[in-house]
Design brief:
binds adenosine-5'-diphosphate; 46% helix; binds magnesium ion; globular; Helicase, Ruva Protein, domain 3; 11 strands; 319 residues; Arc Repressor Mutant, subunit A; alpha/beta; five-stranded parallel beta sheet; two-stranded antiparallel ribbon
């Protein structure tokens, strides 16, 4: 699933820019709210570039604990610190001759920003425990859902790095500003997931489409994709207004609905508490993540240590 779906004006322009910028080797900064397709855009740039046969290495800077960032990005040599029993390739080495996608780049701690700047300026990485620098040739695409100018003004991001990353800016608009693309994407995911499950493609009532068009889509395309997955598992041949208004589908309902009528929701089906808790946790984790700028901020909202948050996400199959 690497195709960018959409025919709205902003998406047509975006595709056009991708075509133009892919040919060159400039660094690109992709901005847009979470779930708008930043990683997908980075993939498309890579696939249309002369680096397409080399690696595309996406990494979410917000999901790696600060103390591990440098060893993840630049790697280390065997014996460079206690516990370094083997040497480790950094992601920049893995992306050599290819493309690296640094998502949520504003989450990089300042020391890592300094090192990144040096990689861009000199084309060399400093591997932990290694004397000589290592030359790498990597195209950098950075992603952010924050306004990086603000981050620079607040001292959380380095201005010099910002200018190096932002040679060409690409902005992705939220899904609610893309008009009928909502329906195109909806139909696309319906088809994809029906084929995946080997079921007949359900019909969608016009009234149901209207609700989808009017919904605000705070989680953007990622949310729409999840909604379709849930709908397909729960519908019977057609998707109607009732399916879509189910409070488990769209999330413009209150935080906790006291008056939830379980009988309407589950129609007499009963799951064991453990199974239900798992479903709830997964949805809730995904929801909190979608309204957070990074994994660490989601963990904080949930009152969890980042390492626990990360482990629980893995257990729930989110990572
Ligand atoms: N225009 C689009 N067409 C098809 N799929 C899309 C589109 N935009 C996003 N997606 C899908 O939505 C999900 C979220 O996209 P992603 O690139 O991870 O967003 P971001 O990095 O901005 O959070 C992915 O599964 C992606 O393939
Ligand atoms: Mg992303």
């Amino acid at each position: 699933m690497k195709k960018i779906i959409g025919e709205s004006e902003p998406i047509v322009q975006l595709k056009d820019s991708i075509e133009r910028y892919a040919k060159s080797d400039v660094n690109i900064l992709v901005s847009g709210p979470s779930g708008t397709g930043k990683e997908l855009v980075a993939w498309n740039i890579h696939l249309k570039s002369k680096r397409k046969y080399e690696n595309f290495v996406p990494i979410n800077c917000g999901s790696i604990p600060a103390e591990l960032i440098e060893s993840e990005l630049f790697g280390y040599e065997k014996g460079s610190f206690t516990g370094a029993n083997n040497s480790k390739q950094g992601l920049f080495e893995i992306a050599h001759n290819g493309t690296i996608f640094l998502d949520e780049v504003a989450e990089l701690p300042l020391p890592a920003q300094v090192k990144l700047l040096r990689v861009i300026q000199e084309g060399e990485i400093e591997k932990i425990g290694r004397r000589q620098k290592l030359s790498v040739n990597v195209r950098i695409i950075a992603g952010t859902n924050k306004n990086l100018t603000n981050e620079v003004n607040n001292g959380r991001s380095r201005e010099d790095l910002y200018y190096r990353l932002n040679v060409v800016p690409l902005d992705i608009v939220p899904l609610r500003q893309r008009g009928d693309d909502i329906i195109l994407l909806f139909d696309y995911f319906i088809q994809y997931f029906s084929q995946d499950l080997d079921i007949e493609i359900p019909k969608v009532e016009d009234k149901a489409k209207e609700i989808l068009l009017n919904y605000k889509w705070p989680g953007n395309v990622r949310e729409l994709r999840n909604v379709v997955q849930r709908l397909i598992l729960n519908c019977h041949g057609t998707i109607n207004v009732k399916d879509i208004s189910n409070p488990m589908i769209l999330r413009d309902h209150g935080i906790v609905k006291e008056e939830t009528n379980f009988n309407d929701l589950y129609q007499g089906q009963v799951l064991q508490l453990k199974e239900m808790e798992k479903i709830f946790r997964k949805k809730y984790f995904q929801y909190v993540r979608s309204i957070s700028s990074s994994d660490s901020s989601a963990a904080e909202k949930l009152g969890l240590a980042p390492s626990n948050y990360y482990r629980m996400c893995k257990e729930l199959g989110i990572k």
